[in-house]
Amino acid sequence: MHSAEVAGLAPLAARLRPRHLDEVVGQRHLLGAGSPLRRLVEGGGTTSVILWGPPGTGKTTLAHIVSRATGRRFRELSAVTAGVKDVRAVIDEARAARSTAGARTVLFIDEVHRFTRTQQDALLPSVELGWVTLVAATTENPFFSVVSPLLSRSLLLTLEPLTDDDIRGVLDRALRDPRGYAGRLALTDEARAHVVRFAGGDARRALTVLEAGAEALLADLTATGEADGSGHGRAVARLDVDVLEQAVNRAAVRYDRSGDQHYDVISAFIKSMRGGDADAALHYLARMLEAGEDPRFIARRMIILASEDVGMADPGALGVAVAAGQALDLVGLPEARLALAQAVIHLALAPKSNAVIRAIEAATADVRAGRAGPVPAHLRDAHYQGATRAGSGVGYRYPHDAPGGVVRQQYPPDGLTGTDYYLPGGNGFERRATERLRELRAVVRGTPSTGPETGAHGESDMTPGTAPPGPVG
C-alpha cells in the first residue's frame, strides 16, 4: 500500500464517494428509471427534494452526484456554519444567474434540521419561484425539524440504512478500487464480519473503521520490516480482527444480526425486563447497540412488552416505551440511547401483569369460533334518516344522565353477556382496577358485586386443561 494513499490524502470515505448513480450502493427504491431523483440527476427534474435518512446512507453523495450530472450551478451550505445572511447571498446570486444567463442553481444544504425557523423561512420564496432547486439533507424526522411550508414545497425521499450485503459491497470496492487499496489489502472473514457488524448500516463508519485498521496494520508491518515506509509489502497485507479492535479501541461484540445471537440476545433482553432484572436488561441493550442492532427494532420490542408483560399493572409503561421510540426518531443515536435505557429501567422495575394479552387472546378466540352475534339494536348507529323506524338506537341509555355515569345496559352481542375477558392481576394498579371492574360489571349487568372474578364464558378461571397465551417475546 502507498502511504500517500492511506495517510496523506482525503479520508477513505471521501475518496470513494460515488461519482455517478451506478456506483451508489443501496437505495434502489429511489434510483429506478423515471424516479424523481434520477430525473433530477439527469437534468430533467426541477422539484426540490429533502433527503431523510440515517448517517452514512448516501445523502451527501447524492447531492454531489446531482451537482456533477445536471450541468447546473451548484452551491453548498452547511446548516452548522451558515446564517440567514449566507442563505440570502446564495439566493440573490442564483436569481441573478437565472435572469441574466438563464442558468439554474442547485442549492445543497446539509443538516438542514439545524437551521432555525427563520433560516428555513428565508428559503421559501426561492424554492417556490424556482430560483433554486433545493436538495436538503437531514438525519432527523423532517415532520418535526423542517417547517411545514418548506416541506410541502419539496419532495421527501427517505433513505434506508444499508443492508449488511450493501456494506460488504462497499468494503469490496474499497479493497479493489485504485482510490482505495487497489488489491494490496485483504480482510479476514472474521474482520470483515466485525466491520459489517460495527457499521450498523453506515457506509462512512465502515470505511472509517477499515481505514483505521489499515493504518494500524501498515504501521505494524513497517515496524517489523515486512513493508517499507511507503507501504510496499512483499505480499497482500491481511487485516484481522485483533488489529481492528486495537485500531478502533473497541472489542468485537460477538453478535450476528441475522443469526442465533440476534434471537438469543433479544430474547434475553425481553426476559430480563419481564423478570425485573434492570441491570441484565441494560447489559443486553448496550450489547445490541454496540453491535449495530437496529434501535427501532429494540424500541418496538419494548413497546410490545409494555402491554404484554406490564399492561394495566402500570398503565404508564406503554407511554414510556412509545416515548422512547419517538425520542429515537427525534434525536437519533447516540443520544437516544438514554431514552431507551430509561424505558428499559422503567419496564424492568414496573409491576407485571399479562392480563392484557390474556384478555385479547380470549376475545379473539371467541370471534374466530363464530361467537360474534349482531350488535344489539339499541347500540346501533342512529345518525341517519329512518334509523328509528329500523329500531336502531331505540332504548339506548346515555350513561352521563345517570349518577356515577354508569347504567345497566347490554353491550355485548347475545350469547356473550356476562363473559369476562379481562381478569386483572394483583400487582400495581390492577389491585385497584379489580375493585373498580367489579363495581362496573355489577351496575352494567345488574349482578352482585361480590365474589371472585370469573373467567371467559363464566368459568372461575381459564377453561380447565388450557394454558394462558404464551409470551410474544
What descriptors fit this protein?
21 helices, single chain, two-stranded parallel sheet, 5-stranded parallel β-sheet, alpha/beta, disordered N terminus, 473 residues
Structure description:
Helix content is 48%, strand content 7%. The protein has helices at 3-8, 12-15, 36-41, 59-69, 84-101, 117-121, 124-129, 142-145, 148-152, 164-176, 189-199, 203-223, 241-248, 260-274, 278-290, 295-310, 316-331, 336-349, 355-368, 387-390, 430-445, and strands at 49-52, 73-78, 105-110, 132-138, 155-158, 185-187, 237-239. Strand 2, helix 5 and strand 3 form a beta-alpha-beta unit.
Secondary-structure topology with pairs:
Layout: H1 3-8, H2 12-15, H3 36-41, E1 49-52, H4 59-69, E2 73-78, H5 84-101, E3 105-110, H6 117-121, H7 124-129, E4 132-138, H8 142-145, H9 148-152, E5 155-158, H10 164-176, E6 185-187, H11 189-199, H12 203-223, E7 237-239, H13 241-248, H14 260-274, H15 278-290, H16 295-310, H17 316-331, H18 336-349, H19 355-368, H20 387-390, H21 430-445
Parallel strand pairs: 1-4, 1-5, 2-3, 3-4, 6-7
Helix pairs in contact: 10-11, 10-12, 11-12, 12-13, 14-15, 14-16, 15-18, 16-17, 16-18, 17-18
